[in-house]
Amino acid sequence: MRAFIQMIPGGVPAVIGLVLACLFFSMIPGRPQMWLYPLVRQAMQLKIDYQTKDMLAKETPHFIIKYTENDADMVNMVAEAAEAAYEPVTAALNYAPGGRALILVYSDRQAMKKAYGWAGDASAMGFYWGGVIQILSPKAWMKNSQSTNEFIATGPIAHEYTHLVLDHLAKGNYSRWFTEGLAQYVEYKANGYEWVTVDNRLTGKIYTMDEMDADFDELPNQSLAYRQSLAAVRYIAEVHGDAKLNQVLNYLKAGVKVDRAIEKTLRMDYATYETMVNLWAKGNMKQYSKNAN
Ligand SMILES: [Zn+2]
């Protein structure tokens, strides 16, 4: 034993360090970075909270909404939509994050665009970043900005809140397509909303899962990439059952990567899953048609 230790550079302290490191990492569920991730997110959240300390704030049971004077007449509607999203989102993911989620309301597109390094789609009504839901004021995009039902059904809150809850549940262990597919699945289930355009029919040329995994945000036809991500999640929930979708989420929570989590849950390899999703989507998902849209 002594001879063996002497052979290791650093000797006894190095071995003790190695043993402690092994013990330390074996105590942490999942990958070590999953342990650090919530702390980083919390720090970003605190920073955003501090940077927006001069904004007005409204608290609801599960949310804190920050807004400017300009949107004072909108905040009750945003509060109602946020609370309306709470139950369907936490039920679908079978997970409820502790504390109140922060929602920032930007009064116009310009303010939202330059906020926090966001470089997303200019037409988007909201995004999830830094542990915070960031939305465009309903005044900036809704025809009838006083219709709470319209805001609940077509607004971004259920979608962005799903991103937040998944982020808390999986501690960053998910792919871009998976979180977009899940967010659309929940808003589809809760509000019947689907993003169907002339450019995202699933019957023509579509992306491979390799392309979706590699660089989801850079795929040139984003409406198609989003549509396919919804198909990939809906296939799991509708063909195999919601319990299987929850099983995938449990694997993500435990640190298993998305592709392996799906393979283990559905007991099929990733290539077969891709084939099955595409076949199912062609026959079962709504496709754009001139008459229906
Ligand atoms: Zn999204």
TrEMBL record:
InterPro entries from the UniProt entry: Peptidase_MA-like_dom
Pfam families in UniProt: Peptidase_MA_2 (PF13485)
SUPFAM superfamilies: Metalloproteases ('zincins'), catalytic domain
PROSITE patterns given in the database record: PROKAR_LIPOPROTEIN
All residue ranges annotated as the Peptidase MA-like domain in the record: 154-278
Domain of life, per lineage: Bacteria
Name of protein: Peptidase MA-like domain-containing protein
Species the sequence originates in: Sporomusa malonica
